[in-house]
Design brief:
This protein is mainly alpha-helical and 241 residues long. The chain has ten helices and no strands. Pfam families: EcsC (PF12787).
């Protein structure tokens, strides 16, 4: 490993430590409030969310709705790949923020439209990340890896502890994993984001909440994607002699 790769290794160790920490007290208490908020939201909203997630999972696995160039970083060092990804993250965070503010300001109908739009932005980011870090998303196993990154970013403490070893040892697990349980996938995602995203449907504050929520959700996903791919690349680097 060179100096930058050693630095990245230390960052990955810290990232993994953070993932395995128990959620904050506020996050745990918000689960109770979330249950109350959910009961006040029209059933149509819940149907839109569930359907959007199901279709997103199917589209990701078939590769029909998300396309990107073959590896955009042939010959680049890890440091250079990180720099390219940082530029893409700026674009995707800005896009998600504008989209969240616009749909949040539009009331419940546009608020409902935000869920599939945001999912699309997130998945395009993940396909972009795979390409930047040198992985071929035309392969089914790489699309399945993308869904595991998504799940790692937006799941409960318990589920993250189950998914992280799969991410860390992908070459070992990829032959065993043939599909994704979309029902579990969508429930984990909903439980993770429902509270703040449902508040986006509240008149008067929807725009501010939508912009803030989307920025932070894209940022969290970007950090997870970057470190998941860095982890795979670092594991392939010969140790220092």
């Amino acid at each position: 490993m060179n100096e930058y790769e050693l630095q990245v290794y230390d960052e990955i160790v810290e990232w993994k430590r953070g993932l395995l920490k128990r959620s904050s007290l506020i996050s745990r208490l918000s689960k109770k409030a979330q249950t109350r908020v959910n009961s006040l939201i029209p059933e149509k909203a819940h149907e839109v969310i569930t359907s959007s997630i199901k279709q997103m999972v199917k589209a990701t696995l078939t590769g029909s709705d998300f396309t990107t160039k073959r590896s955009q970083s042939t010959g680049l060092s890890l440091k250079e790949r990180d720099a390219v990804f940082a530029e893409k993250m700026t674009f995707y965070r800005r896009t998600a923020t504008v989209e969240g503010a616009g749909t949040g300001a539009g009331g419940i109908l546009l608020g409902l439209a935000d869920f599939p739009l945001l999912l699309s932005i997130k998945m395009k980011l993940l396909f972009e990340a795979a390409s930047i870090y040198g992985y071929d998303t035309s392969k089914y196993e790489e699309r399945l890896f993308i869904l595991h990154i998504f799940q790692l970013a937006f799941s409960s403490d318990e589920k993250r502890r189950q998914v992280l070893p799969i991410i860390e040892n992908w070459d070992q697990y990829k032959e065993e994993l043939q599909d994704m349980d979309w029902r579990e996938f969508q429930q984990e995602y909903r439980d993770h984001i429902d509270f703040v995203k449902m508040l986006q449907l509240v008149p008067g504050v929807g725009a501010a909440i939508g912009a803030y929520a989307n920025y932070n959700l894209l940022d969290a996903l970007g950090v997870t994607a970057k470190n998941a791919y860095r982890l795979r690349l670092i594991k392939s680097v010969p140790p220092v002699q």
